[in-house]
């Protein structure tokens, strides 16, 4: 019975994959060339992309789709965010399909029905782990931006106070970091500079920068800059200094949270080390008592 069920399941999975592959042939070639962090099975994505398109996931599961899209947008940018979201979801389905096939094949070879169940459970858990990993990347990115933003604002205040314009101050900060920087805040600033040098107004570029970051503190920074830009002089510097104080307080809170998390992670190793010491010290005493 197990062999029959496993054989049928393997046949359905492989046959369904082959059918989807034929239907999607040549339609999603551009997706396989898209580069996104964490995507490893882009070449196997077309069948699942076709399935997602036919199921109309964005319409039937809008909350789930747009929640993933917001996270993908923060990681990969707002350009082609919908396509990157579909590629990420196709990656999830592909992993699930591979695990189901692996579990069914192992069950067919060993005659153990539990392997099918294990494959099905893993096919659910791994996509959930991918979503959780995406969320952790977004949280890490936001934390890095929050920690660096007060430093950037202090540099801008010093340069503006010395007579530079805001645009010149931002360009100077970017030149110090270099074009190859991997920090998310400076990558978004580089994109903002390319936009205003390419024809966008400074206000449009700043609004796009705030939207891409998607962080309240960055929105407060851009709002303060745009509201006080025309005023200039001491009023502009004073407004930025007020914002700088609040951002430094926010940075202290984030640093404190990180310190608490680091100390909590050390609890288990310390307990383990304590148990090892107790065993090393107590074992000789127990052996002597036995003698």
From TrEMBL:
The chain crosses the membrane at residues 84-107, 113-131, 266-289. It is a multi-pass membrane protein. It is found in: Cell membrane. Residues 153-283 form the Type II secretion system protein GspF domain. It comes from the Bacteria. The keyword Transmembrane applies. It holds the Pfam family T2SSF. The keyword Acetylation does not apply. Keywords: Cell membrane, Membrane, Transmembrane, Transmembrane helix. This is Type II secretion system F family protein. It comes from Paenibacillus haidiansis.
């Amino acid at each position: 019975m197990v062999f029959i069920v496993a054989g049928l399941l393997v046949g359905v999975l492989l046959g369904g994959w082959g059918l989807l592959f034929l239907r999607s042939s040549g339609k999603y070639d551009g997706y396989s060339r898209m580069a996104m962090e964490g995507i490893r099975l882009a070449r196997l994505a077309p069948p699942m992309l076709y399935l997602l398109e036919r199921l109309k996931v964005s319409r039937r599961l809008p909350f789930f789709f747009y929640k993933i899209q917001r996270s993908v947008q923060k990681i990969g940018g707002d350009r082609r965010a919908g396509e990157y979201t579909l590629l990420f979801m196709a990656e999830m389905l592909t992993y699930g399909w591979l695990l189901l096939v692996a579990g069914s094949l192992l069950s067919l070879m060993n005659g153990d029905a539990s392997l099918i169940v294990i494959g099905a459970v893993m096919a659910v858990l791994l996509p959930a782990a991918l979503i959780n990993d995406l969320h952790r990347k977004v949280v890490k990115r936001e934390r890095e931006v929050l920690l660096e933003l007060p430093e950037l604002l202090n540099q801008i205040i010093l340069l503006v106070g010395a007579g530079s314009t805001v645009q010149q101050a931002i360009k100077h900060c970017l030149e110090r970091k270099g074009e190859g920087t991997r920090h998310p805040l400076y990558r978004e600033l580089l994109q903002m500079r390319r936009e205003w040098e390419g024809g966008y107004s400074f206000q449009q570029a700043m609004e796009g920068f705030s939207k891409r970051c998607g962080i309240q503190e960055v929105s407060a920074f851009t709002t303060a800059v745009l509201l006080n830009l025309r005023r200039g002089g001491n009023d502009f510097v004073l407004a930025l200094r007020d914002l700088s104080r609040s951002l430094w307080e926010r940075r202290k809170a984030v640093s404190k949270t990180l310190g608490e998390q680091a100390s909590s992670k050390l609890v288990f190793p310390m307990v383990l080390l304590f148990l090892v010491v107790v065993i090393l010290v107590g074992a000789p005493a127990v052996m002597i008592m036995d003698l």
